[in-house]
Write a structure and sequence with these properties.
The protein is of the alpha/beta class. Helix content is 33%, strand content 20%.
């Protein structure tokens, strides 16, 4: 597995953050004037952004996480559904399955009604893949989980079309069959930050497992593939001692910038 470089991490993190904005002006971030297509959810709100430039062989698919009350409730649909319609041999979280198969409301003059999020994304990406471009998927929270499934489905249909998958604060989305059949574990980077509780969800040990390479950003360091129980133990210990850590002189020194220079 190749390493994730700092400039790549920063680029994908910025794009994931911008995905929650109502408007993303892609030319400010090096993409072509016509280098953006928006995929709406069933309510006509942006869910996925496909970004590209004319002089780069990478197309970036950015997926935002739950962004309305109904989608938050879908996180509770923790039973699993098969993904045969995506060409995959494993089952995934039922709520995430629904998000992929929901109707996508048109956002472009060429869009038509009655198309799912999954199918609309394929339609947009196919011309780029035929041009020899490769696709990177990135997303935050449930958007990261959905991105993994979309990337794997695309790789299954168009081999070697996926460049990498980078997720931030992603919950688990499948179990043992996912681990066995997911094709992109060597290209998937799962970023976890400090004590992010969502990365431990769903709370069903054994039924839900993670895949890919985990990078845990914790206490000023990057830890690779730290087992869940160890990470949970360290997180719990940090929760217990955190109130006392604010008493250390290091904290007082670090906050010197609150004061004027003179």
């Amino acid at each position: 597995m190749k390493k994730l470089k700092r400039y790549q991490y920063e680029r994908y993190a910025v794009l994931c953050n911008l995905a929650y904005s109502r408007v993303l002006k892609q030319t400010r971030y090096g993409f072509a004037p016509n280098g953006q297509r928006v995929i709406n959810n069933r309510y006509g709100k942006p869910m996925i952004r496909v970004l590209w430039s004319n002089d780069n062989d990478e197309v970036i698919v950015v997926i935002k996480g739950s962004h309305n009350p109904v989608d938050w409730l879908l996180n509770l649909a923790m039973w699993q559904k098969k993904c045969h319609q995506f060409g995959l041999k494993y089952s995934i979280h039922a709520g995430f399955h629904y998000l992929l198969t929901q109707e996508s409301m048109p956002s472009h003059k060429s869009d038509r009604l009655g198309i799912s999020v999954y199918d609309r994304l394929q339609t947009i990406l196919l011309p780029h893949i035929e041009q020899g471009k490769r696709v990177t998927f990135t997303g935050h929270s449930s958007g990261g989980a959905i991105g993994c499934v979309l990337a794997d489905a695309l790789e299954n249909k168009y081999p070697k079309s996926i460049k990498r998958v980078v997720t931030f604060g992603q919950p688990a989305f499948g179990g043992f069959s996912l681990r066995k059949h997911y094709q992109l574990a060597h290209k998937t980077f799962r970023i976890c930050c400090d004590l992010d509780i969502v990365t431990f969800l769903p709370p069903l040990a054994g039924l839900y497992l993670h895949t890919g390479k985990m990078l845990w950003l914790y206490n000023g360091r990057i830890y690779e593939n730290t087992p869940t129980l160890i990470r949970l133990g360290r997180s719990f210990a940090s929760w217990l001692i955190r109130p006392f850590s604010y008493h250390l002189m290091e904290k007082y020194i670090r906050n010197k910038d609150f004061f004027d220079e003179r």
